[in-house]
Amino acid sequence: MPLPPGTTIGSYEILAPLGAGGMGEVYRARDASLRRDVAIKLIPATFSQDSDRLRRFTQEAQSTAALNHPNIVSIYQIGDHQGGPYIVSELLEGQSLRQVVQAGPLPARRAINYGVQIARGLAAAHSKGIIHRDLKPENIFVTRDGRVKILDFGLAKLTEQAPLDPGNSPTLTVGTGAGLIVGTAGYMSPEQVRGESVDPRSDIFSFGVVLYEMLTGQCTFLRKTGAETMAAILKEDPPSLDSNHEIPVALQRILQHCLEKDPSARFQSAQDLAFDLDSLSSASDQQTKLPASVDSHRSWWRPVAFAASVFGALAIGAFLARHFSRTSAPEWHRLAFSRGMISAARFAPDGQTIIYSASWNGKPFDVYTTRPESPESRALGLPKSDLLAVSSRGELAVTRSIEVVGPGVFTGTLARVPLEGGTPREIMPKAQFADWAHDGSILAIVHSVNGRSVLEYPPGHALAEFAGQLAFPRISPDGDQIAYLEYPDPSQDAGNVVLVNQKGEKKILAEKWTDLTGLAWSLNGKEVWFTGTPTSNEGALYAVSLDGRLRLLLMGPADLQLMDVARDGRVLLGSMHWRAEMYGAFSGDKAQRDLGGLDFPVPTDISTDNRTILYYEAGSGGGPNYTSYLQTMDGSPPLKFGEGQCTGISSDREWLVCFSPQQPNPLFLVPTRAGASRTLPKDQLTHTFASWLPDGKRLILLASEPGHAIRLYVQGLDGQPAHPISPEGIINLIPRLSPDGKWVAANNYLNKIFAFPVDGGNPVEIPAIQEGETVAGWSPDSHSIYVAAVGELPVPVYRVELTSGKRELEMTLSPPDPTGVNYLGPILVAPDAKFYFYGLDRRLCNLYLVTGLK
């Protein structure tokens, strides 16, 4: 019997029924504590006696809750109501893909858009070892704003089940082991039909069936009976689409590649599938469309654009109609085939040899050479080196003995190395970036001076300096200007594309972008090409003219990183699967846990009872203003607390302190239970971190005033201005407060750790701190701190006494898979050292030579 409105289930109030299916009834409900509407799927108590049905219901909840991704429905909670279990999930507004395709075939571009999103969701599931096994239009939801969500991972291959006779049923939902059949017949892969063990390539076949149906309105293999359908899957090819001129030939090839009977002939990963689909999409989009947020930066252009659109719409439509199916997309040629991170790549003077630096398969960085006609790479024998630039005279600029100072940023000794081999000639310690002038005579160098990032050109002459981080300087072809990226917060790659001339006159070409990862000049020197995004989407390749006019060059399904542009227009691009991950352990854990998150979780605090962690999502899953979460260590899903970077939990666990990544970013306080948020008075500070003092009346801030470097402040909640308690030049992502609330431990720009008194007084330098170590926590008695060097893996964590400097190894941290891990941090250690968690930055990069860009 359906539940009437007003019924309560746990802390949820039933509002209205949404539907019913084989796994139970679904209702719209209100979450009173967080003031949001949710969906509740309830299985009747009478069905809970069926152990197989109950197991599949619980399995769906557990497998889906482990998958935090924008294209997978979010599970909030699982519980029990009157003897029957229920799942609480995000409430989706829109319709299923089945309802969408019932209206008829989709236009190719819309089908590609949906396909890319589905493939990304599958890639996220497959990366966690979860196979959907029942992908079909009923299990795919399209929201009102065009976002695609995958539903019902209830058949994921996580448990063994008993086989049933497949008979003639077109829908089979039993079995997971080899020799058993599971799935919906019309969408099963051949190996599912044969009852064989399956892997992610089975989902790719099902995806192909769904994509075919989106394009044609027909399920390619569905017949009158289940037996006939399964025979068609095993023996028949899908009807040819050659006569359908509205479906591009390239898309037909992708579809055919998905529907190969032999799994080894299909796409081998959903990530590669998404890449090919999105590359096909950008071939038609790149010359005609920019993201809406890019247009918003140039609002003066809109009246002109509107007038032009009156005359141009028909012409553009005719152009697309004529050319969409035969537009020649940019050609991608893969250059490197190992698994790991590529930090930089450049063309050699001959235009054919490519030089790059990479960390392959968890090993230290080295510099390699390769050529397009060869799949092999040769190491140059420069271990722990990062490539910075290659001169027209065949000389390399590298940093040696590199150390990680932030995500994607290394520091080391700058050296010049002949390409043909020879002894490196060291130039400058602690350099970060460099570029050669086009005649190969002089270098532009970025290094850190007194906590500020300085660009020198020529060496010794400071052309620009910045309180944050300057990165990727590139000298113009005429040598008169330098383009570079600047990051206000050194811990993030969000900021501006900047131009500076020989007089030191600075001009911002593109402001407030994220995922800024690479930069180079165009062939004619009239544009700066760079990779980034003005939104929360994956980074793409853009061009900006010297007067600030933007245009989109190329998009991909993963973050793109521009490495170099050759003299003939060929481009070196990294296709980067870039994500952050979190790991940790609670008292009694025998091994560390994967703490989940979306695509870029950043850990920020541990509650005083050592049972809850706080983090925010800084990637595309978190949106342009990021999203914060609280997660307990009892295995329950994280609680979402809306937009903003929340970095501190109050001692009573009643409040979070947060701020926006966008400027200006005043602090605001968010209740962890029911209640209203509170915004503190605006100030002139740019906040990068905030935490609570034990009294609950004051905050510790890591912030900077305009034109100044970051320092520590104490901020009261009484409206009084914040006052500094440290000099400028604090470099921590997260300073740590002692348990007694009297001291804040933090690193300065000289890589020394000081304890700064909260209530005023002289700071105390912590003795025996080694190069690269940063503070990770305090001991329970506030007499020692925990420190860790976040460079090479594994990372040792030491306990260091404040007075004597005595050091004891407390633990050693390393993720289960070190491949592509560029940066391990921040690290947060609870006072008893039995509870810790940390973040890491993993970048898996493929290097491509791309032609056909203009």
| CATH topological fold name of the largest domain | Neuraminidase
CATH class of the largest domain: Mainly Beta
Helix/strand structural class = mainly beta
Question: What is the average of the pLDDT values?
Answer: 84
- What is the CATH architecture annotation of the largest domain? 6 Propeller
Mass-distribution shape = globular
Largest sheet: 7 strands, antiparallel
Query: What's the β-strand tally?
Result: 55
Enumerate how many helices there are, as a single number: 10
How many angstroms does the end-to-end distance come to? 63 Å
- Count of the separate structural domains: 5
Helix content: 10-25%
The side-by-side strand order for the widest beta sheet comes to 17-18-19-20-21-22-23
- Catalogue the unreliable spans: 156-182, 283-327
Percent strand equals 35-45%
| Assembly level | single chain
Overall radius of gyration? 28 Å
**CATH homologous superfamily caption of the largest domain:** TolB, C-terminal domain
Descriptors:
5 domains; Phosphorylase Kinase, domain 1; 40% strand; single chain; 10 helices; globular; Transferase(Phosphotransferase), domain 1; seven-stranded antiparallel sheet; 854 residues; mainly beta
Q: How would you characterize the overall build of this protein?
A:
Helix content is 15%, strand content 40%. It is mainly beta. The chain folds into 5 domains: 83 residues, Phosphorylase Kinase, domain 1, CATH 3.30.200.20; 192 residues, Transferase(Phosphotransferase), domain 1; 31 residues, no CATH class; 184 residues, Neuraminidase (6 Propeller); 200 residues, Neuraminidase (6 Propeller), CATH 2.120.10.30. Strands 17-18-19-20-21-22-23 form a 7-stranded antiparallel β-sheet, with no helix packed on it. α7 runs antiparallel to α8. The protein is globular and about 80 Å long. 49% of the residues are buried.
